[in-house]
Amino acid sequence: MKKLIIGNWKMNPKSETEALAIVEKIKKALIPIVGIDLILCPPAVYLDRLYEEVRLTSIKLGAQNAHERNSGAFTGEISIPMIKKWVRYVILGHSERREIYKEDDKTINKKVINALIHNVSPILCVGETIKEMRMGDNEVIIKQLREDLKLVSPKDMEKMIFAYEPIWAIGKERGADPQYANQQIGLMRQAIASFYNRDLAIRARILYGGSVNASTVKDYLDQPEVNGVLVGGSSVVAAEFIQICKIAMGK
Question: Would you say residue 137 has pLDDT above 90?
Fold first, then answer.
């Protein structure tokens, strides 16, 4: 299985010109991309323009979020039908959506189901708080998975991507210990096996996300349970992200 590298740009950069410059640097440095799969998740306002830049390459685009409904009186929201021309993936349940915007598992589950209906693959994020981590409460991750995957069929599980994103490691100088991340991802795989079957669990792509950078990425990718990384802040710094991808490619 190829390693999967996803860049979550969050609310960056400040202009389309800067966004295009990042993509051009990535294309120049990495294409042809060999040995990894690469997904970029820029702000929705840049998707149209960036799609034209990457559509003839192996770089794929994803959205950072989408509403659970297709249309309606939801000021400021974006629906899957609005963006599915440009994206094949959407990040759902990110720790910042859970923490800042108080999205619960019921809402995230609706978003997952709606994305799958439109043949857009969810990148489902789960993770515990610092308090839960210190208490050794792993049930919270299992509960998130159970609730977020309600009504998701085994067939649709083939489209799912997962990310272990400990809330306490997002946006910090240091991420989770690689061995700890490997352990937690192993628990996620066990949970998926219990919900579905062992074969699906083995084939599930589960990434680590949380303060990943070029100096730490190899430690995560070397872990047996880790199928890739979800990169935040470092993905908007072209040189850093290129280095992360090159390490994943074994260069």
Answer: no
